Input
Amino acid sequence: MGSIADDGALLVAERALAEDVPFGSYAYISTRVLDQYVELLSTIAESSPGARALLDSTATADGELQRSVLGDPLVRRTIEDGIGLYQLGHDAIDEQSLDAVLAAADKHARDSHSPLLAETAGCVSISSASHHGYVWTATEDNMATRRFTTQCLGRIPVLRIEQPTDETLGCIVEGAKNLDILLPELGRSASAHTFMVVVANAVGDLEYESLTVPGLPGVIFLSPTVLTSPVRAAEVIFHESMHLKLMDIDYAEHLFAPGFRPLLSPMVSPPWQGDDKKQPWPLDRILTAMHVYTGLAVFFGRFELMGSRSGVTGHSEYPVDPLMKYQSATERARYLLDISQDHLDVFSAAGHSFIKWIAEIHKILDVHGADKP
Output
């Protein structure tokens, strides 16, 4: 016998993860993040004409355009590198490159009301919906595309960025549609944090299916090996988008105590890791995985209950029992929740509230569980 929450409980949990303030609502989280980038931009505007121009143009833009322009991963990375350059003396970017990127972002905001990367790289929109981002195609070669590629491969040199095939693009598009069908509220909320989907193969012996990278907000990397069916694509897009959402939550709310460093964190090896792949996790990874597995529990619970009635493309092609995946996700999330509660000294007051919030969501799923054969 297995246990799964009923559809009403899944809906309540989905709405909490998608709409609650301060940890669920995309509108709230993105506004908080945007405000911080505007503040950082105003700081470097004292030294960079490009930053000053971008600050002025976004100040008069509506909220959606502001989010689009300042939510561009290259712009976010450049603003942060500018703070490092002018405030801390770091050399991640030089003044000329900083000014060129931000001036280009300003030009696209003014002339075409569009984000820099989407235009300059000729990227493909996943759909016309505002919560969907782009697929990296890089059909153009220019300063912005080269810098974005450098930022990606500088952090993950074991990947090779690929030009997606028509089949791969179609799978991503259908996967995004499936996610909207399965999770009409949470799918949209999570996807809104993903600006760019990059298809990349591993180089050498690396085994990976999908990942996000600290320092590259709004970017997810997907292996072609997981883009084999629209349902599998929906799962990995959602999985990585929930990681990005947690990055933005942390950026907005500061979930960890001052001075927290992952390398100095208590380390925990989750019991589901195989002996040959055991890798201790710091508590920031524990927290983000707890958030992702909670979302995946709702994803697989909805998938199981909707079944063939869902209208999900490729439903019959999904190779794993959704009920088993639901149970695995809930068990892992609760294990990580227990670990987080055992190390509250590592987290800020906002972090304590976040952990309590996740615990309340699991109480909803527990109380409304129903036995399934």
